[in-house]
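[09:14] KT: can someone run the structure on this one? pasting the chain below
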Amino acid sequence: MNISFADTLYFKEDNILKILLGSHRTYKLIHQEISTETEKNNLTLNEFLILIEIRKGFKKKIDLSKKLIIKRQNINIIFKNLEDKKLISNLDNTKVELTENGKKNLDKSIKKISERIMVLFKKTDSKYMSGFINVIENL
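[09:31] RB: done, structure tokens below
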């Protein structure tokens, strides 16, 4: 019996449709949760993403600009807005750090979003999980 990889359970047409529908719904739910959390903290999505990158320890604004696909001048505007909101501090124009308020808000938001993602993954049928994860990784 000669079975190719495409003939396996995950690549049958019916299963692909279930995976695509599941990832589409899940992506919308995750995006809604992120939008809700950013609105609660009076942030834009780009500001939220930059806060995450600051927490991870970015090196240069140009690298940040390329990674997030945001124009360099917009990065500077976002940094200024975050400073005005007292979520980051720019020490000697060389090192940017999250303030205590920034850390608290970011941690709370990330925890809430993570909980939502875990709920979504727990609802996913284990039979489709492998394909589902592959689709999510490529979004």
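[09:33] KT: thanks! The chain is about 70% helix and 5% strand.
[09:34] RB: yep, looked fine to me
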